Amino acid sequence: MSVACSQCGEMFEESDIVTIKGLPVCATCKPFFLKKIQEGDTSVAGFVYKGFWARLIADWFDGFILGIIFQAINLFITVPTAKSTSDPFHFLSVFSVSFSLFFSINIAFYVFFNGRYGATPGKMLIKAKIVNTDGTPISYTKALGRFFAEILSAFTFGIGYIMAAFDSEKRALHDRICETRVIKK
Ligand SMILES: [Zn+2]
Known about the structure:
alpha+beta, binds zinc ion, 6 strands
């Protein structure tokens, strides 16, 4: 399959084309294109990356939705059980069921929304979407992988998230691991 270079318009074999900022660029145009990007040339179309603060708002929004679900599980399952039993082992087993249920809902939430739309409700709110480095939509499998990679970002005391603030392509740790980018829709 041949691809048109976004800069000179010539057709090239896919293997002779590199993707930069989601745009196909041929080997001849590559150095000029990179120079334009370095110089901050705004005429260079391509990805507009979503930054740390917007993404933090998106994560808060998703956390709010999931928090409501978590509280509902506690209200309707965990707390009534705690009141009905004096056996701590029974309570612990119910608590672990509640927690597993919540964890499963979390996975389903991120895999469904990111796999189908490239964005959770929070990311939709900030008009962002997750894409592969070449700009194509991510698969359900990648959405699942990214869910677990994001746990790593959380377990590093949030440093994995903060990395996005200091990266030219606004990559969080989980974007680096999964080779994804969060861009303006
Ligand atoms: Zn070219």
